[in-house]
Write a structure and sequence with these properties.
The complex is a heterodimer of chains A (about 290) and B (about 450).
Chain A: H1 2-38, H2 55-62, H3 64-97, H4 102-113, H5 116-126, H6 133-140, H7 152-180, H8 184-192, H9 197-225, H10 229-233, H11 246-255, H12 260-284
Helix pairs in contact in A: 1-12, 2-12, 3-7, 3-9, 3-11, 4-7, 7-9, 9-12, 11-12
Chain B: H1 2-32, E1 36-42, H2 48-61, E2 65-71, H3 74-86, E3 93-96, H4 101-106, H5 114-119, E4 136-137, E5 140-141, E6 144-149, E7 151-156, H6 157-162, H7 167-171, H8 181-190, E8 192-193, E9 209-215, H9 228-234, H10 254-268, H11 283-288, E10 292-298, H12 302-306, E11 314-317, E12 328-337, H13 344-354, H14 357-365, E13 370-371, H15 374-386, H16 392-399, E14 404-406, H17 413-428, H18 434-447
Parallel strand pairs in B: 1-2, 1-3, 9-10, 12-14
Antiparallel strand pairs in B: 3-12, 4-5, 6-12, 6-13, 7-10, 7-11, 8-9
Classes of the chains: A mainly alpha (about 290), B alpha/beta (about 450).
Main location (chain A): membrane
Pfam families (chain A): BPD_transp_1
Keywords (chain A): Cell membrane, Membrane, Transmembrane, Transmembrane helix, Transport
């Protein structure tokens, strides 16, 4: 009796899952398989794709532009994840220990609500060498102008800063939600024992936040690797490829040069890299196990 | 519960029927044969009104053919078009440009118009010289010319007047790659630092430039249409072994490197902004903000500079004359028919109309671009003049014997564009010297054709 009932539940569950499964198959599964197939063809959108074996992949390995775009992406991820995580942790800890103001939380979320293209345009004007507000400020201090988006040294850090601005609030909220899971009594007893705030952060908050932090890091790392819109709006990969991140490289190969097979191969490589990185990161941070249990 | 799901099913089936009806609509048009809707694509929003007027006039003459115009911005236009072509849903007729149309020719997507041109005796000599040939390959014709553009110097009249430079002073400037000729003198004069000293003044402070004399365009692909290409042509440089449809580029020509070096000199002297401090905004935005006194622009920008949206007063001057004379890039657009269209004859009627005085005079009177037909160009000039706009330099260059050169038309246009633009930018940034960068780029470019 029990067994049949359980099976019935399962059948019902499948029905509920069906819409999602259909969506997943049509919009993720099928395109992914197609992408895999295109990556071993010479597809250009205008021809009938024919099988070329591993040619796209061997070509990619020899393509200095591809390696350069990976390098540039790595640099961006380092800058963006680094600054964003540290700032967000700080903000979350402050919110957690000082104020629970809803207004503050809503304000932090504001930049995240602005569409990325708008953010790109906004900062493109603010950072402009000749007409930008920031360079105007620097000018009144007798400095600059700095080509934030046109100088090869500054372009990537500037784009990382723009996205840090946009995503720190959101990341901080996620971490803050994680901090709310930490039992309050731990802080109380630590306070009685005379621990200061910094020590409590290091000894209580950080270790107990680990599963949430791991998740946030994985999600933002993958998101960070996919940097595209800010670049497409501001620098378009310039100067001389200094901001041609891997996604922009793939986009140009696919939709500017119409090398769809080649672009698909690059996308598959990126997926592999992200997969490996995720596994490593989850292992390192023992994400699935909580110290609270 | 049952009732609701029935209602849902009814709604769903309605939606499906509506969808089917929408799908079959164009099919009906084809089978009935009398009422036909042609899709026509273009990218320039400035020109949509002119072509809508053409479409209306065409529909009045051919009541069974309706033209549906779709306009999308340049950046998306070619992606959209290629996707639609790949999906077998391309517009019946679309606007083409030299760097992009070869891929559609190679993949057999454009209808050969030569039999139609012959049958209907279209007079190809009515167009500005050379424009019709741009869209020919191996005796086949992949479009009819619709308009053309040339390049000129645009300047901020107030800023130049303050330095004692007027239209007369800018009319006959000379240029050479060694000292830049009188053109560079004018640029130096137009450059003003924070203390009000111009570039010719010994006390000029190149670290504190307020207005640059000349704004170069560095996002200029493989052609340098908005700058270096014109100067290189004035030294005798040609892009290709043959144009159109050459397969051997000549970017390693030392004369091209000379031009880039001259540009680098302007930057070093403080007359032009350094590339790594260059604005991400377009040159017309900087010109409007008074950050630049002069730049080189195309006739398609006339309305932006002389129209109501301009914040300061601009005027056009001819390009300077180089060692081999004054040479301006000339570029032409065309209208092409998709080889997969179900309405070939109707599409031809429309293209023929677009390429006739009937339509090009309408376009001319709207004074946006110069139509391909010579008499229509004259009308466009008159329309500009009646609005009080002096656009003579563009026409003079187009009509001067040997005064223009065509931009390269080959396969792999967008790949070549990226390689050459990157090479030139790296040379200007000082990452490599111009000759080495261009030599390497040329090898990469020519390897694409092997």
């Amino acid at each position: 009796m029990r067994a049949t009932k359980r099976r019935d539940d399962r059948r019902a569950a499948w029905w509920f899952l069906l819409p999602v499964l259909v969506g997943f198959t049509v919009f993720y599964g099928y395109p992914a398989v197609r992408g895999l197939w295109y990556s071993v063809t010479d597809y250009t959108m205008l021809n009938t794709p024919s099988y070329v074996g591993a040619e796209n992949y061997t070509e990619l390995m020899r393509d200095s532009e591809f390696w350069h775009s990976l390098l540039v992406t790595g640099w961006y991820v380092l800058l963006n994840i680094g600054s964003q995580t540290i700032l967000a942790l700080g903000l979350a800890a402050l919110m957690h220990r000082l104020t629970r103001s809803v207004v503050l939380r809503a304000t932090l979320l504001l930049p995240w609500l602005v569409p990325n293209v708008t953010i790109g345009l906004l900062w493109m004007w603010l950072l402009d060498t000749n007409l930008g507000f920031l360079n105007h400020l620097l000018g009144t201090l007798g400095l600059g102008p700095v080509g934030f988006l046109s100088d090869a040294t500054w372009a990537m850090p500037s784009i990382a800063a723009i996205n840090t601005w946009a995503y720190t609030g959101y990341t901080a909220l996620l971490l803050y939600a994680g901090m709310l899971q930490i039992p309050q009594h731990l802080y109380e007893s630590a306070a009685i024992d005379g621990a200061n705030e910094f020590r409590m952060f290091r000894r209580i908050t950080l270790p107990l936040l680990r599963p949430v932090l791991a998740l946030v890091l994985v999600v933002s790392l993958i998101g960070s690797f996919q940097i595209f819109d800010t670049i497409a709006v501001t620098t378009k990969g310039d100067p001389v490829g200094a901001t041609r991140a891997i996604y922009y490289f793939i986009y140009e190969e696919a939709f500017r040069f119409f090398h769809l097979g080649y672009a698909a191969a690059a996308a598959i490589c990126l997926a592999l890299i992200l997969g490996v990185l995720t596994v490593i990161q989850m292992r390192l941070l023992r994400a699935s196990r909580s110290d609270l249990a | 519960m049952i009732r609701r799901s029935r209602a849902g099913a009814a709604l769903l089936s309605l939606a499906v029927v509506a969808g089917l009806a929408a799908c079959s609509k164009s099919g009906d048009d084809a089978s009935s044969g009398d009422a036909v809707t042609l899709d026509y694509w273009l990218w320039d929003d400035n020109q949509k009104a002119s072509y809508q007027a053409c479409a209306d006039a065409f529909h009045a003459d051919n009541p069974n053919i309706t033209i549906k115009i779709t306009q999308s911005a340049w950046d998306q236009y070619w992606q959209n078009l290629t996707t639609q072509v790949a999906a077998g849903e391309a517009p019946d007729v679309w606007t083409n440009q030299g760097s992009y149309y070869p891929q559609f020719v190679t993949s057999g997507q454009i209808l050969d118009l030569q039999p139609y041109v012959k049958a209907d005796n279209v007079d190809l000599s009515q167009y500005q010289a050379g424009l019709a040939e741009l869209f020919e390959k191996d005796g086949k014709r992949y479009g009819l010319p619709k308009d053309w553009d040339t390049m000129a110097v645009v300047y901020n009249t107030d800023l130049l007047k303050a330095q004692g430079l007027d239209a007369a002073a800018l009319k006959d400037l000379t240029w050479n790659p060694t000292d830049g000729g009188t053109f560079e003198q004018a640029i130096a004069k137009a450059t003003v630092d924070a203390n009000g000293k111009n570039g010719l003044d010994p006390a000029f402070d190149k670290g504190k430039v307020k207005t640059f004399g000349f704004l170069p365009e560095w996002k200029d692909g493989s052609q340098g249409q908005n700058g270096w290409g014109n100067f290189a042509a004035m030294l005798g440089f040609t892009y290709l072994d043959k144009n159109p449809w050459g397969t051997q580029y000549k970017y390693d020509d030392p004369r091209l490197a000379q031009v880039i070096d001259w540009y680098k000199g302007l930057i070093a002297k403080g007359y032009s902004p350094a590339l790594d401090q260059k604005s991400t905004l377009a040159n017309d935005a900087l010109m409007n903000a008074g950050k630049g006194a002069m730049t080189i622009t195309g006739s398609w920008m006339i309305n932006s500079y002389l129209g109501d949206s301009a914040k300061v007063k601009f005027a056009f001057a001819p390009l300077p004359a180089g060692p081999q004379g004054r040479k301006s890039a000339i570029n032409g657009l065309s209208d092409a028919i998709w080889s997969g269209t179900e309405h070939k004859d109707e599409a031809w009627k429309w293209v023929k109309f677009l390429a006739s005085t009937d339509c090009q005079d309408i376009v001319a009177n709207n004074a946006v671009v110069f139509p391909a037909i010579k008499t229509a160009s004259e009308k466009a000039l008159a329309a500009h003049e009646s609005k009080g706009r002096d656009v003579q330099p563009f026409i003079d260059e187009a009509t001067a014997p040997g005064g223009t050169f065509f931009l390269p038309i080959t396969d792999k246009g967008s790949e070549v564009s990226q390689i050459v633009q990157d090479a030139i930018q790296s040379a200007v940034l000082g990452q490599t010297d111009s000759a080495t960068a261009l030599k390497k780029a040329n090898e990469q470019v020519n390897a694409l054709f092997k």
